[in-house]
Amino acid sequence: MLEGKALVDDSDMPLKMQVQAMSFASQALDLYDVFDCTSIAGFIKKEFDNKYGNGWQCVVGSSFGCFFTHSKGTFIYFTLERLKFLIFKGASSSPSFSTFP
């Protein structure tokens, strides 16, 4: 497990949910090759959908840019190992906008 080695770049998630996000990322890295970003992202998305309800999105990679709308309190962007992780729940109302990097 790689827990404790993640660096949160930005988040508006509650701390408990942030810890869960990093734990799911660590589990995914234990299960999949570090170059299989699609499977890693799919694993994290499914875990978030199961735990917190449907509508979660996950992007994993070493270099990407994005612009997205998310529901307040559901966004985290962090680094674990050499990968960046972006997890958020799409907004249905009262959106917050974020741009990375």
UniProtKB/TrEMBL annotation:
It comes from the Eukaryota. Keywords: Cytoplasm, Cytoskeleton, Dynein, Microtubule, Motor protein. It is found in: Cytoplasm, Cytoskeleton. The keyword Cytoplasm applies. PANTHER family: DYNEIN LIGHT CHAIN (PTHR11886:SF78). Belongs to the dynein light chain family. This is Dynein light chain. It comes from Hibiscus sabdariffa.
